[in-house]
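Worked Example 4.2. Consider the chain below.
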Amino acid sequence: MEPNNLEIPFKIVIVGDAGVGKSSYVQKQFSPDFNRDYLQTVGYEISRWSRNLTTGYVNIDLWDISGSQSTVSDRQSWLKNSDAAIIMVDLAQSITFENALRWYKELLAANPSGIPIVVSTWKPVSKDKILHIDPEALFWLGETENVQFYDLASDISRFDQPMLHIIRSLKKDPTTQFWFPYTMTDDSSVISD
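Applying the procedure from the previous section yields the following structure tokens:
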């Protein structure tokens, strides 16, 4: 079965404070290797890919949104018309958990009808730096319908879980699975500022 290149891609935005690992997470979607060289995203970067699912193909535009090098008005225009979002937080930086609510509100302001949202840790952190933040610290999660939490920092082998959750929500099919190996079938990037 060939990817349906005519299918309009889902727009999934990845937001969070600077340095939480958004770009690293996007890179992990395309390669098993980590690039340890940190380059801060300026503006946004779009990565396009297709994945083979047990229920067919899915086309995705992953928007990696800058956590610091942008204004709220810029971000609102970039977040608008999103189909889903991932808010990244860092287990070694408690402020990123506090700011997750601000990111959530920005997402809803740009998408008032609501979208599926995942809040996730990502960056592997040495045990002596982990803040032991209980997911309940994100108290507002309990007051929302479309938000799921994943702690990937302690087990990055589950890196596909946030994307799988979002794709299941967008496809409205909880049985959807990725065909493995979980590898990219189409790659192109667009950088904008």
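Residues 94-110 form the longest helix (17 residues). Residues 183-193 have pLDDT under 50 and may be disordered. Compare this with Example 4.1 before moving on.
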